[in-house]
Amino acid sequence: MSHPTRNLLYGLTSLLVITVVGMVGYHLAGWTWSDSLYMVIISIFTVGYGEIHPVQGEFLRDFTMLLIVLGCFSVIFVSGSLVQFLTEGQI
Predict the structure, then answer these.
(1) Which of 51, 66, 85, 86 is the least buried, fewest Cβ under 10 Å from its Cβ?
(2) Dihedral, CA atoms, 18, 16, 84, 86, nearest 10 degrees?
């Protein structure tokens, strides 16, 4: 497997793992799966519509901050890998 393809797969995998871990974290905090997915998506892609439920407690607030940071890094990595994949003539 070529370097750009491998980077793209690593990035997409990390994005998927962060999404699943985020959903599980919010679900354990008592949120529905749908609300958890919505919160993860608006956090990772920094949309900032606002929370469906209040983010109460220090743990949930820290979890959300970590999710935002890791999610943004992952999205940036996927974007860069996609550009690398396209510019090196892999398609």
Answers:
(1) 86
(2) -150
Compute the radius of gyration of the chain from its Cα atoms.
15
Joined together, the tokens standing for residue 65 give 């901050």
- Tell me the whole-structure pTM to 2 decimals: 0.87
| CA 12 vs CA 18, 29, 65, 69, 83: distances in Å | 10, 26, 21, 16, 14
Asked if 23 and 33 touch (Cβ cutoff 8 Å), the reply is yes
Spatial distance between the Cα atoms of 76 and 69, rounded to a whole number of angstroms:
11
- Are the beta carbons of 64 and 19 closer than 8 angstroms? no
With CA atoms as reference, report the closest residue to 52 among 62, 63, 67, 40: 40
H or E segment and range at residue 51: none
Express each pLDDT in 29-41 by its tens digit. 999 999 999 999 9
